[in-house]
């Protein structure tokens, strides 16, 4: 990996939607050069994948609840309608 590869990676880290043509223009090289280098970076595993990071909806939190265990199935069902993960366990709290 040389300085040019590092430049390509830096640009892709900042904006993975850049086209090969845009990267080539920024680095003053041909589009073919960029295409070949990105292919090599993918083939050697230096670049593993291009991915999308989305904005999380809501907040992350861990909430411990004490509930009447006679109604636990209904409570869990209702909580699952509003929350991504609900876990039942025993101890000082019954749900997380």
From TrEMBL:
Xref: SMART domains: HTH_ASNC (SM00344)
Keywords assigned: DNA-binding, Transcription, Transcription regulation
Matches recorded under InterPro entries: ArsR-like_HTH, AsnC-type_HTH_dom, DeoR_HTH, Tscrpt_reg_AsnC-like, Tscrpt_reg_HTH_AsnC-type_CS, WH-like_DNA-bd_sf, WH_DNA-bd_sf
A biological process term (GO) from this entry: response to amino acid
CDD domains with a match to the protein in the record: HTH_ARSR
Gene Ontology MF, one: DNA-binding transcription factor activity
Database matches in PROSITE patterns: HTH_ASNC_1 (PS00519), HTH_ASNC_2 (PS50956), HTH_DEOR_2 (PS51000)
GO cellular component annotations of the record: cytosol
Keyword 4Fe-4S: no
Residues covered by the HTH asnC-type domain: 1-60
Annotated HTH deoR-type domain residues: 1-62
Gene3D superfamilies linked to this entry: Winged helix-like DNA-binding domain superfamily/Winged helix DNA-binding domain (1.10.10.10)
Name assigned to this protein: AsnC family transcriptional regulator
Biological source species: mine drainage metagenome
């Amino acid at each position: 990996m040389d300085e040019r590869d590092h430049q390509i990676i830096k640009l892709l880290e900042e904006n993975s939607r850049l086209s090969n043509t845009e990267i080539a223009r920024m680095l003053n090289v041909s589009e073919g050069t960029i295409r070949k280098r990105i292919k090599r970076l993918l083939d050697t595993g230096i670049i593993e994948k291009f991915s999308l990071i989305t904005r999380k909806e809501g907040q992350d939190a861990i909430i411990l609840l004490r509930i009447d265990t006679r109604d636990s199935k209904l409570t869990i069902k209702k909580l699952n309608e509003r929350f991504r993960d609900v876990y039942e366990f025993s101890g000082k709290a019954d749900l997380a």
